[in-house]
Write a structure and sequence with these properties.
The protein is of the alpha/beta class and 293 residues long. The chain contains 14 helices and 9 strands. The strands form 2 sheets. Strands 3-2-1-4-5-6 form a 6-stranded parallel beta sheet. Strands 7-8-9 form a 3-stranded mixed beta sheet. Bound molecules: NADP nicotinamide-adenine-dinucleotide phosphate. The site of NADP nicotinamide-adenine-dinucleotide phosphate has 28 residues, from helix 1, helix 4, strand 7, helix 7 and helix 13.
């Protein structure tokens, strides 16, 4: 693999809310960009700037030194990596494959083992920072897998993120992301309840948000998503159905490790209620609609 961006071709699969922005940064940095996604129209803007289209993961892998995936669910990750037309069977010798989807730690371990059988390094590298973090290349990136492979692609991570850490072997990135989602789950419930309380006690909630957002409660969930809640902007951002997927993985892992997490279980129940009320495609700040009225 070369050292300047022009010498390292990057394949990208999954050009949704997060993936399109992330792939755009790699393209802007000078990497020859190869793309493939389920809905071709989602690649239009990157293709117009010179990206190369491939029909499916196999052909994309054969043209790329590094492949990044940012798809939806663990079942998508499994298909894209291990399917007949998957990345692992078609990767170039010495390639590094990086899954940045939020997915299951066990699946990450399985894919890394399949890659190792073919001499292909597979890293799990989920992210945090939301749609804003992806657009501004300020993501936190949590990496599991082979440490030498991590060092080889560190500058690629640096093109998309700011806080980039190797957390351990295969699956460690996904476990770190689960810790992140466990923190967020109860935090966003707290944001909804604090703002609902401010509203119902007759305060000006926007003034309250400005005041408490500068104190110890401040952070992305309160300052960014709390502001969207008060504006009635419930679009994604981060889809409710993806968050429920993450909370399910986290609860399964917590049960497997016999860790009681009542706050996580309660938050998952609230998000399931929101989804049942028609909120699957809202952003997670849509939880505030349960507190309206
Ligand atoms: P999204 O907008 O739904 O994007 C996912 C993209 O992946 C879609 O374009 C989808 O194609 C494509 N895709 C899914 N399965 C595929 C498959 N089997 N083969 C090829 N392409 C496939 O979701 P997102 O918000 O970018 O999130 C992506 C991942 O990052 C999720 O795991 C999510 O939990 C995680 N995440 C999201 C955020 C956030 O704030 N949005 C933050 C951190 C992590 P179609 O368009 O055809 O469906």
């Amino acid at each position: 693999m070369g050292t300047s961006p022009q010498d390292v071709s990057v394949g990208f699969i999954g050009l949704g809310i997060m993936g399109e922005a992330m792939a755009g940064h790699l393209q802007a940095a000078g990497h020859p960009l190869h793309v493939s996604t389920r809905t071709k129209a989602k690649a239009d803007r990157l293709l117009a700037k010179g990206a190369n289209w491939h029909d499916g993961p196999g052909k994309l892998a054969a043209a790329s030194d590094v492949v990044i995936t940012m798809v939806g669910y663990p079942s998508d990750v499994e298909e894209v990596y291990l399917g007949k037309d998957g990345l692992v069977p078609h990767a170039k010798a010495g390639a590094v494959l990086i899954d940045m989807t939020t997915s299951s730690p066990n699946l990450a371990v399985r894919i890394a083992a399949e890659g190792a059988k073919r001499g292909v390094a597979v890293l799990d590298a989920p992210v945090s920072g939301g749609d804003v973090g992806a657009r501004e290349a300020r993501l936190s990136i949590m990496v599991g897998g082979d440490a030498a492979a991590f060092e080889r692609v560190r500058t690629i991570f640096g093109t998309m993120g700011k806080t980039i850490m190797h957390q351990g072997g295969p699956g460690a990135g996904q476990h770190t992301k689960m810790a992140n989602q466990i923190v967020i789950a109860s935090t966003i419930v707290g944001v909804c309840e604090g703002l609902a309380y401010a509203k119902k006690t007759g305060l000006d909630p926007a003034k309250v948000l400005e005041n408490i957002g500068g104190g110890a409660a401040g952070g992305f969930q309160l300052n960014v998503l709390g502001a969207r809640m008060l504006k009635g902007d419930f679009g994604p951002g981060f889809y409710v159905h993806h968050f429920i997927k993450d909370l399910g993985i986290a609860l399964d892992e917590a049960e497997r490790h016999q860790i009681p997490l009542p706050g996580l279980a309660q938050a998952k129940g609230l998000f399931e209620k929101l989804a049942a009320n028609g909120g699957r495609e809202l952003g997670t700040q849509g939880l505030f609609t349960l507190y309206a009225g």
